[in-house]
Amino acid sequence: MPEGVPGQAVLTECPVCRAKHEVVLFPAFHRAPAPGAAPQAILAAGEAACFYHAEKRAVVPCDACGRFLCALCDVKLGEQHFCPACLQSGREASHLAPVERGRVRYDQIVWSLVVVPVPLCFLMSPLTATGALGLALWKWKAPPSLVVNTRARLVTGMLLAVLEIATVTWVWSSFFAGVKGVK
To answer: Which domain holds residue 43?
Structure first.
């Protein structure tokens, strides 16, 4: 990793392929990892014990299976607490809600509906542009991508859809007005 100020982009060369890359160091890169919570020993008889460490005090139950967990075994995802076994089985079964594996990019679907039909079939573009506009309005509150600004792309796609509908409507009305004038 290149030396530099955290948060600033540094242009560096890959040692293998010699390609230039822009690298941004996160501020936490040079920070030492914070130690996790230490488990506490059971002090009084009758206190709940950790399922995995019988000598440690339980601090929270697992939200999936209900087992009591000490501070060492508690894995917090969002607002939920999981034990290591439930976390592993949930990861393998892909049903852990807080672990998001992907998002639908509605901005790309809108752009495809707006742009692709234009060169292929100009007559279909009002239908696809209307569909793109409807999809953009319907999915406006859907969570955006974490990587790119999908909100701006969605708005631009909506504007292009309206422009496409207006252009095709104007072309059709001009064409039919010209056909009526010929007779």
So the answer is: 35-96
